[in-house]
Amino acid sequence: MTGPAGRTDQGQPEPPDVERQFAGIGAVVTGAGHGIGAALARALAAAGARVVVNDLDAGAARAVAAEIGGHAAAGDAASEDGVAALVDAARARLGAIDLYCANAGVATTGGPDATPEAWELAWQVNVLGHVRATRLLLPDWLERGTGRFLATVSAAGLLTMLGSAPYSVTKHGALAYAEWLAATYRHRGLRVHALCPQGVRTRMLDGTGPHGQVLLAPTAIDPADAAAAALRGMAADEFLILPHPETAGQYAARATTPDRWLHGMNRLQQQIETLPTAQETR
């Protein structure tokens, strides 16, 4: 039960009304053929949104769209031409785009030894895909005085991801861009959110090797849980959305005691280096 000022009888803030926030809106979700993106599309549709499902995998996009009664728009959500085509197709279907979920991402591994192509791919998808989308969406949002942008950043953008420098660096870039958007346009009606989960049981987690198995797998959540956290966070107008609550403390430790935090991360790296390789376990 609720009491005055939107608070429960126990004095806690009233949970946000997710369905009231999203019913009838036009939403685009990129990378929505699988994983978190598919879960976001399902959750938004269940809340009453009209959803355009985007993915490079055309078959997966069509399957999710058919499941939720949405519209499929297969294609590249990172390149200039691909983003323009997606925005045009979504506007043709929805009339206006009220929410853009920049969920598509790539997890390239390695450090300085990663190929130039791997670094470029991570930069194009994880950062410039967001820039290109907002370049096209902002004029309409600012004219209408309303719009919402969700970036699936990952906790790697707040912390780091051992074993994957391109991913870590570009996810920090995605967070920085989301922060800049929020600081620059909030007073003009733009709401920006950064979804920062740790491990989520997806194909991407499966490909992270021993680093992911040590750092992420033990506390991994289902994609539906990440999507539910995203909708609750957006409805509550939160910038940082943390499906793993412990991320907040880790982020604070990184900021306030960086040497201690880095020492701890390095100990994890040393632990991972002692693990037997796949070849040694045969």
Automatic annotation (TrEMBL):
Superkingdom of the organism of origin: Bacteria
This protein's record includes keyword Nucleus: no
GO molecular function list: oxidoreductase activity
Tagged with keyword Oxidoreductase: yes
The name this protein goes by in its record: Short-subunit dehydrogenase
Entry-linked Gene3D superfamilies: NAD(P)-binding Rossmann-like Domain (3.40.50.720)
SUPFAM superfamilies in alphabetical order: NAD(P)-binding Rossmann-fold domains
Protein keywords: Oxidoreductase
